[in-house]
Amino acid sequence: MKKIWVSLVMLALVGSVTAAEKKAKVDKSEPIAKNGVATTLSAGLTLADGNSETLAANASLKTEGEKAGLGSVWAGAEANYGESTVDEVKDTTVENAKVFANVKKTLSPRTFGYLDASVLYDDVALIDYRATVGPGLGAYLVKNGKRTLTLEAGPSHVWEKIDGESNDYLALRFAERYTCQISATAKLVQSLEYLPAAEDFDDYLLSGEIGVEASMTERLSLKVVLQDKYDSTPAPGAERNDLSLIAGIGFTL
Predict the structure, then answer these.
(1) How many angstroms separate the CA atoms of 152 and 113, rounded?
(2) Structure letter (DSSP) for residue 126
(3) CB of 216 within 8 A of CB of 196?
């Protein structure tokens, strides 16, 4: 049933993007590229009561922007929590938090150096913490008023404590991020990150997301994001794959 719902959501998301693209083609005006930094606070809440009681909540604070000729920043923090109660038995279904930062320094109009870092906590996946940090180089394959497509590659060091056991290792990082201003009021964001262990490519982390943000007012926006996280060597008893669909309201500070 979960796969059916995810498929339906993805079809609806793709349909919305396609419709927005067609609308954007009709509108010949080119969106103005922003040159500055903006911070957005987002939150969502879902409650259900009846044969079972469910609660799902999420919150995030993200900063994104660029200074022409200098570089850009993409940083923030996010947290998700969910629980379900059936026959007075409570079960935590989601409990995670992440802090991340990616800072780019312009080297040329199409290339940049970067520093990427993140810290993750996930109680359900038995991750006490997972911290990664590393520098690298990247390039803009596409960069204009409507779209950007970046590729990044570099070394990354990973420190983690999973199910009570600590470990650290050197990994390689390959990442891609695509943004598209699909209409005057809607934006598509997609990203993918692959971190294989340098000594064993069968041990890797893979994460990606795709989402749409639609402005309702100058400061308020509606966001829908599908996230997927895959760990090839999870903790004993934990699933390799975690899929989350997050919807909420964003407020630009």
Answers:
(1) 9
(2) T
(3) no
Are the C-beta atoms of 10 and 18 separated by less than 8 Å?
Answer: no
Cα 30 vs. chain centroid, distance in angstroms? 27
Residue 132 lies in a domain: yes
Mean of per-residue pLDDT scores for the chain: 86
Q: What is the CATH number of the domain that holds 46?
A: 2.40.160
Question: With contact defined as beta carbons under 8 Å apart, do 132 and 98 qualify?
Answer: no
Looking at the domain assignment, is residue 252 inside a domain? no
Domain count, the chain: 1
Residue 15, classed as helix, strand or coil, is: helix
Q: Are 46 and 24 in contact (CB under 8 A)?
A: no
User: Using CB atoms within 10 A of its CB, is residue 73 exposed (0-12), middle (13-18) or buried (19+)?
Assistant: middle
pTM given for the model? 0.82
- The whole-number pLDDT of residue 86 equals 81
CA distances to 140, 177, 212, 224 from 143, in Å: 6, 12, 19, 24
pLDDT at residue 62, as a whole number:
95
pLDDT at residue 35 in the model: 55
Which residues of the chain are under the pLDDT cut of 50?
1-33
Classified as helix, coil or strand, 240 is coil
The boundaries of the domain holding residue 186 are: 2-247
Closest-CA residue to 223 (of 75, 58, 102): 58
pLDDT tens digits, one per residue of 22-74: 444 434 434 334 557 899 999 998 888 777 788 899 999 999 998 887 899 99
